[in-house]
Design brief:
heterotrimer, A alpha/beta (260), B alpha/beta (298), C mainly alpha (333), A: 260 residues, alpha/beta, 12 strands, 32% helix, C: 333 residues, mainly alpha, ABC transporter involved in vitamin B12 uptake, BtuC, 2 strands, 74% helix, globular
């Protein structure tokens, strides 16, 4: 399913957070959104997910206006992974993942067989099957991130939008999460994620979207977008692009003369 | 303030001592009352019971002020007569500003106010709450003497005595019917209260003495229904008191709470204070008793 | 033992039935039915209403407490602590003292409902609650605004009674501050029952939404929850239950706080299943407490509201000190 933002403008609390942003995320691709802190990445993702109604413009999912969809249909079509990783009650891992099936459940009645299968699949995909009974307040950050991703997977939505899914994860887990997201995209899903790690963006993205000051500075393949000139002007510091061990590496150098 | 005196003293000794307390209190406070020969011309009453006695004893011009309860028909038997009289809430400053030459205060009046008035040299008569018929007479006499209207005081007492005499004349043979006075919040008038004394005079036996009553004086409705009195006396009409605490007076099961199936309402104002209005309560009780016994003998 | 764990609802239901039987058999004259012709009216007109009220009020407060805790993601929440009970008392007092309830009996539970509604709105507004974070500041803000609203409501009740010319004002205060279901009639049951059942029905359907809220507001919305609708249903459901219960019984607190805590280890931490279980658990708790009162102080000196406060306040203090152990912290380092 193609997710399209058409000149989306969002005002929050009187402040213009997004200004005329347009972008397209195709099915079967991974679109990674990068930009400085406060650029509006999270707001863009939330608008794409239908959690915020744009002040101007619209978000379309295969032609249908996301804001006009029924909550249930939208829940089945789009899975959103928020930045804050919080589970308010000491639920078990399986219980958390099972929450992803809520949009599919007929009512307060229990799980159906398809629900159980989706949950088991999600658990298995992220290597959580043996831990299913453990309570989430005994997990490390990396494990919790995987559990919440599993919840999003269990939703079996065609679109997955993740806000900084690898924040505060160790390098191995970061890669693991993105390998999983990539696999999803290769399976036909539309994956959109925001992140700070430009090396990961360079490595995994099919499309990179650069958001700066509420506007879209660039959108395109990693090679086209992730250039020293663009990144330096966006981040206000010299960026060095290279390759280490066959894997792209982008690091920040010293401050440049350009103003951010 | 409605006195909490409607329950049984803790023991017979306490009951006996409280009997003594009334005349002692009256004798003691008379000493502090005005010694002048002239009748007090500006009397202030700080207590509902003395309000009612006063209003009947002296003309309005001699009344400086009464409490706000005096004109409240739910608690005052002299409400009509007290209408339009000046009201005081009993603060010492208020009273002193009225420049009374006699102040009538109950023993339940704020002690601080009363002793302050005494220290200021205001003539004060402390009047205890009457719990028996002799005490009612003693209180009326004391107030009458203090305001200089002994004759009218005796007239009040005579009316009361007339009711008592009529009651004793009509007393019938045989076991006395039982009665219970059931009030707001489930309170029942126990032995040692004026209401209890009036039941006695009317030839009724107060069932409250035989039921298990809580320390607060409450009778659970279930006990009332399990052992109903012959006559259930309600001290208020069910709608008269707009409170949640009066819900028990509206309970549908009350119809099972008297053996005769009927209940009689005798307004609280008739026996709240020891005044000659109690005679009307006695009359009402006698009427209820007569009705019961007539029904039985039919 | 593990088999017991699997059927909490059935077990609670059975215990409840046993307690209902015990309640019908317990009175101020001891256990057992009274002799003679008084038996029927006592059973049907005194003990039955009392039992029904304990079930309704206990069950209603239980589910309201569980719903509030689930919605606020805060294990210290309950209608009494959030001011709803005080507000309901104020609404009921106004209904009584203006004579409205004497003219129209339904005015009493409606007054309670309105009072509870206003109080709940005030607390939620004051604390700006409903954020997806359970940060310490948010919890304290909620409890403090609950205390503020409760205190104000109690002060206004005192004012209303102070200004009332009614000689029974002092006795009245006792009724509102220390709840009781003694000597109630079927009229009270009819007055409060429909509203409590309606409120419980509204709250009972929020299970899946409350479950979704465990992940925070954004994730819940993504899962299809309409947060605004949930907030209104919580407010209305709680107001119905607490308003009607307080209007006929006075202040009975802490049931909604204690019951979900006691049941979480057994039923699980998910807010959804806790709703129905807390309803049964609340009914069990209040009925057991009322039976205990009837046995311990037969002529009715000890009031139900005092007993629940005696149980609940130490429990609440312990929760504050030990930390509500059933609450998840934020992201781990």
């Amino acid at each position: 399913m193609t997710l399209v933002a058409e000149t989306v403008t969002v005002n929050l609390s009187g402040r213009r957070v997004l200004d005329g942003v347009s972008m397209t995320a195709q099915a079967g691709t991974m679109t990674l959104v990068i930009g400085p802190n406060g650029a509006g990445k999270s707001t863009l993702l939330r608008t794409l997910a239908g959690l915020i109604a744009p002040t101007r413009g619209r978000v379309g999912l295969s032609g249908e206006d996301v804001g006009r969809m029924q909550a249930r249909d939208r829940a089945k079509a789009i899975a959103y992974l928020p930045q804050s990783r919080v589970v308010h009650w000491p639920l078990s891992i399986r219980e958390v993942v099972a929450l992803g099936r809520l949009p599919h459940r007929g009512g307060p009645s229990g799980e159906s067989a398809p629900d159980a299968r989706a949950i088991e699949r999600a658990l298995g995909t992220l290597g959580l099957s043996s831990l299913a009974g453990r309570s989430v307040d005994q997990l490390s950050g990396g494990e919790l991130a995987r559990v919440l991703l599993a919840r999003a997977l269990a939703q079996e939505a065609r679109v997955l939008i993740a806000d900084e899914p690898t924040a505060s994860l160790d390098p191995a887990h970061q890669v693991q999460v993105f390998v999983e997201l990539q696999r999803l995209a290769q399976g036909g899903a539309t994956v959109v994620a925001a992140l700070h790690d430009l090396s990961l963006a360079a490595r995994f993205a099919d499309q990179v979207v650069v958001i700066d000051g509420g506007t879209c500075r660039a959108a395109g393949s990693p090679g086209a977008v992730l250039t020293e000139t663009l990144l330096t002007s966006v981040f206000g510091t010299r960026m060095a692009i290279g390759e280490v061990g066959g894997v792209p590496a982008i690091v920040a150098g010293g401050p440049s003369g350009a103003t951010p | 303030m409605p006195p909490p005196a409607e329950r049984a003293p803790a023991s017979r000794w306490a009951a006996w001592l409280s009997r003594l307390a009334v005349p002692i209190a009256l004798a003691g406070s008379l000493a502090g009352a005005t010694g002048a020969d002239a009748k007090p011309a500006r009397i202030v009453s700080l207590n509902l019971c003395t309000d009612q006695i006063l209003v009947d004893l002296v003309p309005r011009e001699r009344i400086g002020a009464v409490t706000h309860l005096a004109a409240d028909p739910s608690v005052s038997a002299a409400a009509e007569a007290a209408k339009g009289l000046r009201i005081t809430y009993g603060s010492a400053e208020d009273v002193v500003a009225l420049a009374p030459d006699l102040v009538l205060a109950g023993t339940w009046t704020t002690p601080a106010t009363a002793s302050l008035l005494e220290r200021l040299g205001v003539p004060l008569l402390r009047v205890p709450l009457a719990g028996t018929i002799p005490e009612v007479r003693a209180v009326i006499r004391a107030v009458a003497r203090a305001v200089g209207e002994e004759a009218r005081g005796e007239a009040q007492i005579a009316r009361l005595d007339a009711s008592l005499a009529a009651a004793s004349r009509k007393r019938r043979e045989g076991p006395r019917p039982t009665a219970l006075i059931y009030q707001v919040s489930g309170l029942a008038s126990g032995p040692g209260s004026l209401a209890d004394a009036l039941l006695e005079v009317a030839g009724l036996r107060n069932l409250a003495a035989e039921l298990s009553i809580g320390r607060g004086g409450q009778v659970p409705l279930e006990i009332l229904i399990a052992r109903p009195p012959d006559i259930l006396v309600l001290s208020a009409a069910p709608d008269e008191y707009r409170t949640a605490a009066a819900d028990n007076l509206r309970h549908p099961a009350l119809r099972h709470a008297s053996r005769s199936g009927a209940s009689v309402v005798i307004p609280w104002r008739l026996w709240l204070c020891g005044t000659e209005a109690a005679s009307r309560a006695i009359d009402a009780l006698m009427a209820a008793r007569d009705a019961l016994e007539d029904a039985r003998h039919r | 033992m593990s088999r017991l764990r699997r059927h909490p609802l059935a077990i609670l239901g059975t215990v409840l039935l046993v307690l209902v039987g015990a309640s019908l058999l317990t009175g101020p004259l001891g256990v057992g039915l009274p002799p003679g012709v008084a038996r029927t009216p006592i059973l049907l007109e005194i003990r039955l209403p009392r039992t029904l009220l304990a079930l309704l009020i206990g069950g209603g407060l239980g589910i309201a407490g569980a719903a509030l805790q689930g919605y606020l993601r805060n294990a210290l929440a309950e209608p009494g602590l959030l001011g709803a009970t005080g507000g309901a008392g104020l609404g009921a007092v106004i209904a009584i003292h203006t004579g409205a309830s004497a003219a129209v009996p339904l005015a009493l539970p409606i007054g309670g409902l309105a009072g509870a509604l206003v109080a709940t709105l005030a607390v939620l507004g004051l604390a700006a609650a409903g954020r997806s974070t359970a940060a310490a500041a948010g919890q304290h803000a909620l409890l403090i605004s609950g205390v503020a609203v409760s205190t104000l409501a109690t002060a206004l009740i005192s004012l209303a009674l102070n200004l009332s010319p009614n000689p029974f004002a002092a006795v009245e205060m006792v009724h509102w501050l220390m709840g009781s279901i003694a000597d109630r009639s079927l009229d009270h049951v009819m007055l409060a029952g429909p509203a409590i059942l309606a409120g419980a029905a509204v709250l009972a359907r929020l299970g899946p939404d409350l479950d979704a809220l465990s992940l925070g507001e954004d994730a819940a919305r993504n899962l299809g929850t309409d947060i605004d609708r949930v907030r209104w249903l919580i407010i209305i459901g709680t107001a119905l239950v607490v308003g009607a219960a307080t209007a006929v019984a006075g202040t009975i607190g802490f049931v909604g706080l204690i019951v979900p805590h006691l049941l979480r280890p057994w039923v699980g931490a998910r807010p959804g299943p806790l709703l129905l279980a807390s309803m049964l658990g609340g009914a069990v708790l209040l009925l057991a407490a009322d039976i205990a009162i009837r046995l311990a102080s037969p002529v009715g000196e000890l009031r139900l509201g005092v007993l629940t406060a005696l149980l609940g306040a130490p429990f609440f203090l312990w929760l504050i000190v030990a930390g509500p152990s059933d609450q998840r912290r934020g992201p781990l380092p």
